[in-house]
User: Fold this.
Amino acid sequence: MRFLLIIPAYNEEENIPKVAEDIGGLIKDAVVINDGSSDRTHDVAREAGFVVLDHPYNIGVGGAVQTGLKYALRKGYEIAIQFDGDFQHRADQIENILKPVLSGEADLVIGSRVLAGDYRFSFFRRIGSRWFSLLLSLLYGAKITDPTSGFRCYGKKAIGFFSINYPEDYPEVESIIYALKAGLRVVEVPALMRQRTSGRSSIGFFQSVYYMLKVTTGVILSSLRRFRR
Assistant:
């Protein structure tokens, strides 16, 4: 089966070469979605040999991921892997999140830092992750230990659905609601990840409270939304 690595990146010129080295010859097809970066992310990604799709301005990780999924759909890929450009995700863990899709067990697979057991969350991120896990359990009975993880694998159905329906801002938790409401099979597997060492996180320390309030509101509204098929 043909699969594509989607790498959303915003001001990740320092990390993209590390990502390229980590991937090495493991992945044949990969695309960097340069989400309006103000640094040399575009040039560095091209120099590393990636296909690069540029947004003229920053629209957020949700828009970047959806651009990648639309590209995957248009090019006929059957599987897409979301692999962030900040060097936190590990290429040697890709096989773990691929397996449930390849076996036909899942449409969307989430790589869980919690199940892997060795990742150190900041205090606010740990609280946020636990709160969203509880919210998903209360609303849908879904047992997701790491709902904010961006390390994901999308099967053919998920690529088609999310290319049309995808949250714009802080999309990780809301997209799980989208998937569950659409009847997609969501599976979580352990995935080892690195701590961020450079670049700019999409969620800073001072955004934590705003993030929790916004995503909680989004999750509740998403539970009432109808989706396009």
In short: The chain has a mean pLDDT of 90.
